[in-house]
Each structure stands twice: as structure tokens, then as C-alpha cells.
Amino acid sequence: MRTPPLPMLAAIALAAFAIPVGAETGQTEGAAMTSIRVIAGKTVLSATLNDSPAARDFASLLPLELTLRDYHGIEKIADLPRKLDTTGAPASYAPTTGDITLYAPWGNLAIFVKPFESSRGLVPLGSFAEGDVAKLNDGPVRIERAD
Question: pLDDT, tens digit, for every residue of 69-106?
Fold first, then answer.
């Protein structure tokens, strides 16, 4: 039996240890994203959910009627009807403005209106189109699929 050339063996070995792009956030390159709308009164905002187990579980709850409330001027939070699947979620995450996340220890939705430091238990779900998150106020919102 013939042994493959050394460069081919090296390529096979490297492929065995390859990590998909975005694996640290529970996403994979080329993964399907879910478009959503967040409706606050007459304001309709667009956002996209990633393809992580937590984001897919969140999408399965839609449509949702939630009440947003300010949390320290950094995020808008809302209670979810149940805990989400956090399989494969990162241990911590550093949110930026517009990020839609789950704070797993409390089981609540957290939408960041300002960037924040990396926090344990924070799971990325998606993000708003640039600039849209600034239009969110405290109060009732409806979150639904856009497609």
C-alpha cells in the first residue's frame, strides 16, 4: 500500500483541527441568518439573528410581545417566557452597540445601546442595522420574523 506524500498528510492533519470561522460566537461561516422586525409603536426596526442554537431557539418564540426597560443606560432588557438553549455558547461575550443578546444567568433579552465589557453568561443572538438601536425606548415592543 502506497503512503500519501507528506504535504497531503499535513493538509489532512490540519483539516482535522480546523475550526469554522465564527465558532467562538456559536456561528459558522455561510450560516443562515434570520431577519426580524422590532416594532415599537410606529417605529419599525430591522435586525438579524445569527445561526446559533440560542438564536434559533429565540426565533422559535416569535412573534413575541415584550416590555423593554433601561438597564444602567447601557442596555434595554426584557424578560423572556422561558430559558433559551445555550448549547455551544461562548463563556463570555463583549457586546457592541446594536447587539441583541441573552443574559443566560437571568434568562432575559439584553439589547445593547452602548458597548460594554466582556461579560460571563452573555450570549450573542444577533444585531440591529447600524444606528437603529438608538431609536428604541422603554416600553412595549413586538418582535417578529421579517421573512
Answer: 999 999 999 999 999 999 999 999 999 999 999 999 99
Is residue 19, in this structure, part of any structural domain at all? no
pTM, full prediction? 0.78
Q: Write the CATH number for 101.
A: 2.40.100.20
The CA angle 116-118-123, to the nearest 5 degrees, is 95
Nearest one of 103, 122, 106 to 25, comparing CA atoms: 122
Q: Is 117 within a domain?
A: yes
**Is 94 part of any domain?**
yes
Q: pLDDT tens, 25-34? A: 444 444 578 9
- Whether the predicted pLDDT of 14 surpasses 70: no
Cα gap 5→83, rounded to integer Å:
51
Cβ neighbours for 142, distance < 8 A, ≥ 6 positions apart: 38, 39, 63, 64, 65, 66
